[in-house]
């Protein structure tokens, strides 16, 4: 089954991501140093990019799964409210989710089918949910599995507990979505501010060649450009850290 905490890129994916950023790295390096040899050398830093992209893929997959888990809870809540047993409700989740997500390649549909198969093999719902929570690495799924297991152990009203937990987690996920929308505008502002120094440098290179020529021809100028490049990179990661809030 899928492991959402890890992702292994294929060789073709790695090559694609490396080739994708090489032209960008070369252009930026040439813009700062006007030296073809140095620009080509700096292009070797592209080999680091697949690991960065790998983390993005993991984060994106988990975010998609978390949003889809909300629909799973809605389906479960509706089935329990209609009077179905817990087992039948979990067995029927896959059919409801297939209506929302046609095909069997959506993460939550795959998980719903897997849970149903486990129940058909007489495995407990608690074990199935614990396995799902462990592989997903998501707090909401882990909390849901924990509540379900405690209710089964203590003999509490499992149906009512699931309904209340589903409502609480759904509200939490919706709040996360609202926060994500608000952060999106700030993230756009961050990206604009990050690229502005590069745009200004490009404009000066095109429109004021004599003014900026000493920066490229003198040793002190190259040192200044190196410091500027480092500061831009550092500011990028600092601003990204400020906006990249775990929600």
Chart the SSEs and their pairings:
Layout: H1 11-33, H2 36-42, H3 49-81, H4 86-100, H5 107-120, H6 125-136, H7 139-154, H8 158-207, H9 209-217, H10 219-243
Task: Describe this structure as you would to a colleague.
With 247 residues, the chain is mostly helical. The chain has ten helices and no strands. It has helices spanning 11-33, 36-42, 49-81, 86-100, 107-120, 125-136, 139-154, 158-207, 209-217, 219-243.
Descriptive keywords:
about 250 residues, mainly alpha, 10 helices, elongated
Provide the gyration radius in Å.
25 Å
Reading the helices and strands in chain order gives HHHHHHHHHH
Low-confidence stretches: none
What's the number of extended β-strand segments? 0
Largest beta-sheet details: none
The first-to-last residue Cα distance is 26 Å
Q: Strand portion, in percent?
A: under 5%
Q: How would you summarize this macromolecular structure in one to three sentences?
A:
With 247 residues, this protein is mostly helical.
């Amino acid at each position: 089954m899928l492991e959402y905490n890890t992702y292994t890129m294929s060789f073709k994916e790695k090559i694609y991501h490396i080739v994708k950023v090489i032209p960008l790295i070369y252009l930026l390096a040439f813009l700062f140093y006007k030296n073809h040899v140095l620009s080509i050398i700096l292009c070797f830093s592209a080999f680091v990019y697949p690991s960065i992209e790998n983390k993005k893929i993991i984060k994106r997959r988990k975010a998609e799964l978390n949003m889809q888990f909300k629909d799973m809870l809605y389906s479960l809540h509706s089935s329990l409210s209609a009077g179905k047993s817990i087992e039948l409700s979990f067995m029927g989740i896959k059919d409801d989710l297939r209506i929302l997500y046609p095909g069997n390649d959506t993460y939550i549909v795959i998980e719903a089918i897997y849970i149903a198969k486990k129940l058909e093999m007489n495995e407990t719902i608690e074990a199935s949910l614990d396995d799902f929570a462990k592989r997903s690495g998501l707090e909401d799924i882990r909390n849901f599995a924990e509540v379900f297991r405690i209710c089964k152990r203590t003999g509490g009203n499992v149906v009512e507990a699931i309904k209340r937990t589903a409502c609480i987690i759904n509200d939490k996920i919706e709040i996360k979505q609202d926060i994500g929308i608000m952060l999106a505008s700030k993230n756009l502002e961050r990206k604009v501010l990050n690229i502005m120094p590069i745009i200004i440098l490009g404009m000066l290179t095109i429109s004021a060649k004599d003014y900026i020529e000493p920066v490229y021809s003198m040793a002190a100028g190259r040192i200044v450009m190196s410091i500027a490049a480092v500061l831009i990179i550092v500011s990028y990661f600092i601003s990204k850290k400020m906006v990249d809030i775990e929600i």
